[in-house]
Specification:
Layout (H helix, E strand, L loop, with lengths): L9 E2 L25 H7 L2 H4 L5 H6 L4 H13 L13 H23 L4 H13 L4 E7 L2 E6 L1 H4 L6 H7 L4 H14 L14 E6 L15 E6 L2 E7 L2 H16 L29 H8 L3 E4 L5 H22 L13 E4 L9 E4 L4 E4 L8 H16 L14 H11 E3 L2 H34 L2 H15 L5 H13 L5 H18 L8 E3 L1 H13 L9 H16 L5 H4 L6 E5 L5 E5 L4 H20 L50 H14 L2 H6 L9
Helix pairs in contact: 4-8, 4-9, 13-20, 14-22, 15-16, 15-17, 15-18, 16-17, 20-22
Protein name: Large polyvalent protein-associated domain-containing protein
Pfam family, one: LPD1
Organism: Ohessyouella blattaphilus
Length: 693
């Protein structure tokens, strides 16, 4: 029996994974040597250098509440991230500021770790600011000692006035005001069970003062207030008032939002060619076939997990290359991409792309179905770097006109003639209403005072003519007012009415309304999905995520068959939504129908353009041996997951979208060019890459 191969990480070490990062000790300046610039910008933060203390634990261990509040005040006064000055744009200067920031935060941490008592608080200013040479004494007199900045302090932007003032405790009175009283007011050190929710107050009614109109406010009771409003009275004890306000605030704060997480696929199936010809894939296959920079496995993944992930991932990536008609090496963006299986978990994400290290991570099984989505994030980042977007290209799409076109197609579509007519009608109605309002303000008050029924009847006739755009109607209205009141319409009002008369005249001429744009159902559903499943919003309807979800359906439509590991989650963003009347509807945050066909057509243009620019390489992909003709092999990978019992939603049952394609034209152009070259020229011609932009 052949010895079972244990799959290990392959290729270059990716680095930066959570299992390799600084853990409880916090970040040191020496750790910057293992980071690239983007990682340093992300990770050099106060909370990564000096872990946020558990102040309640410090108090429970015996530290006075006011001392712990001083500790918090000093730490909070530190900038959350490095401060860069003018001229710090160069990478080496940014690095120097980051090292300075880390070292200074560590200095403050060292001082604070030794603060245990009030006496330590009073000495902390001298120990940090004076002993370290950031401040110096410059004068001493009747008003007290004065201190000033040294050159060292001036050259360190981390040492701010806010930090120095937090350290400086000038007197016993200042200590009581800044730490004892403020701590009590902010309920610092009060346990969660005993804390009054923010914004609310619990007060005692001693019976001497009452604001009750019905004389139903009982003395010696407690009441709850918020701002200047009393929201609950006659609570027997302070404990009763606390429980009531906590329950009340909790009920008000409940949003009912639940984060959307794609369900694990019940089975992972594909019916494409047998690229592996019955053998298991290895990490070396990923390096040799696709040119990945490296690969990782989670420590908890056993051999079977690793082998199944390698096999499914290999087949899916070959399917991706075939669907896009690109070379296998393009899958790794020319060798810059890495892949990880369950090694770089990120919260509840089933899969994610890390731009800092250019790596796609897929969890053990929950990540199955999201490979196409995450691959697009990687391409988005790769192109952003090539085109100088300063990040993902989707966040700065003007760098590539077709990307801007794609985002516009994702979010908007042309109006139907009926929608255009309805919009134009509504606009005309608003214009007429505004015109009528200005006319009434200019005419009616004077006519009602000085006119008779005959004058008002004439006004109504002229108003109808004016609102229909009849030329000269404003002049006739002006004459009517002068004949009745002896005064004309003021010039400013008359000019405005003439403008409306001209607009209304244009509206009266028959014409076809201009076709505008309206939000796509994909865009509207994505915004709504964010409203019902996000706390802060902005994820589901972002350019980055909408583009990736649209690409997943594009790949799904381009596949000749089924490839669940690649695109099984392309159509999973489905939720139930209800309106104010409780009517349920199905929300689909992915493109469908004509919208999907239009989006796919733009993806076709983008892929073709990237090939013409030689960021991708066109490859027709000769078909591998079909699965039905595969010879039985003792090493053939087993089926991943059985058919679930009972009825299930099958991706095969969903209609494939027809879409226009320019791939054939590109292939024909490539063939025509190759025929014009002499064989010896073709053999000697070096392979070129696109320009570095």
């Amino acid at each position: 029996m052949a010895k079972q191969v244990q799959h290990e990480d392959f290729g270059e070490k990716i680095g930066g994974a959570k299992k390799d990062l600084w853990k409880e000790r916090g970040l040191l300046s020496d750790d910057l040597a293992g980071m690239n610039g983007r990682e340093a910008d992300k990770y050099v933060k106060k909370d990564n250098i000096w872990r946020k203390p558990d102040y309640q634990a410090m108090i429970d261990s015996g530290m006075p509440v006011d001392v712990a509040f001083f500790f918090k005040t000093v730490r909070d006064s530190l900038p959350a991230s490095p401060v860069y000055l003018y001229g710090d744009e160069a990478p080496e200067k940014r690095l120097a500021r980051q090292e300075q920031y880390i070292d200074t935060v560590r200095e403050v941490q060292g001082i604070m770790d030794s603060v245990k008592t009030k006496a330590d608080v009073m000495a902390a200013y001298r120990r940090f600011c004076l002993d370290n040479g950031y401040m110096e004494q410059i004068a001493e007199g009747m008003s007290g000692t004065r201190y000033g900045w040294t050159e060292k302090g001036q050259n360190n932007p981390v040492i701010t006035n806010k930090l120095v003032n937090a350290f400086h405790v000038s007197s016993e009175y200042a200590y009581q005001r800044n730490f004892v009283q403020k701590a009590a007011k902010q309920q610092f050190g009060v346990s969660k069970e005993d804390k009054v929710p923010k914004g609310y107050e619990i007060r005692h009614n001693d019976g001497k003062n009452t604001w009750s109109k019905d004389d139903d406010w009982k003395p010696d009771t407690w009441y709850v207030a918020k701002g200047h409003r009393i929201i609950k009275t006659n609570l027997a004890t302070k404990a009763d008032a606390l429980k009531w306000v906590q329950d009340f605030a909790k009920q008000r704060a409940t949003s009912g939002k639940k984060r959307f997480v794609p369900k694990q696929l019940a089975a992972v199936r594909r019916d494409g060619p047998d690229y592996r010809r019955g053998r298991d894939a290895t990490g070396q296959d990923y390096l040799d076939t696709f040119g990945f920079r490296g690969g990782e496995f989670g420590n908890w993944m056993n051999h079977n997990d690793r082998q199944a992930s390698l096999n499914m991932g290999f087949d899916a990536l070959k399917d991706l290359a075939a669907a896009l008609k690109i070379s296998d090496r393009d899958v790794s963006y020319g060798g810059s991409l890495s892949i990880a299986f369950g090694a770089r978990g990120s919260g509840n994400a089933v899969a994610h792309y890390e731009p800092l290290r250019q790596v796609i991570n897929l969890t053990k099984m929950n990540g199955a179905g999201s490979l196409a989505h995450e691959w697009w994030h990687g391409l988005d980042d790769h192109l952003g770097g090539k085109l100088g977007a300063g990040g993902l290209l989707s966040e700065n799409p003007r760098k590539h006109p077709l990307m801007a076109k794609l985002i516009d197609t994702i979010k908007y579509k042309p109006e139907t003639p009926e929608q255009a007519a309805a919009r134009a009608g509504a606009q005309d109605a608003r214009t007429r209403k505004n015109a009528e309002g200005w006319l009434q303000n200019a005419m009616l008050p004077a006519l009602n005072r000085a006119g008779d029924d005959k004058a008002l009847a004439e006004y109504e006739i002229l108003k109808t003519a004016y609102l229909s755009g009849e030329p000269g109607s404003v002049d006739k209205l002006n004459d009517l007012k002068k004949s009745v009141t002896g005064r004309v319409i003021p010039k400013e009002d008359r000019d405005r009415l003439h403008t409306f008369e001209h607009i209304l005249q244009g509206m009266s001429a028959p014409s076809e309304p201009t076709i505008g744009k309206v939000p796509t159902e994909f865009y509207k559903s994505s915004k709504r999905m964010g409203e019902i499943s996000e706390k802060d919003g902005g994820y589901w309807d972002s350019n980055v995520e909408m583009m990736a979800r649209a690409f997943a359906t594009y790949v799904m439509d381009a596949l000749p068959g089924r490839s669940d590991y690649l695109a099984g989650h392309a159509e999973c963003a489905i939720a139930f939504d209800s309106d104010r009347d409780g009517n349920l509807s199905i929300l689909k945050a992915y493109p469908e129908g004509d919208e999907r066909r239009a989006i796919n057509a733009v993806f076709d243009e983008i892929v073709a353009e990237l090939k013409l620019q030689q960021y991708l390489t066109h490859d027709e992909h000769a078909q591998a041996e079909p699965p039905s003709e595969r010879q039985a092999s003792p090493r053939a990978a087993p089926e991943i997951g059985p058919d679930p019992p009972g009825e299930q939603l099958s991706f095969d049952s969903l209609p494939r979208q027809e879409r226009p394609s320019v791939m054939g034209k590109l292939a024909a152009a490539k063939e025509a060019v190759s025929k014009t070259e002499r064989p010896e020229q073709a053999a000697d011609k070096p392979k070129t890459k696109g320009p570095e932009l």
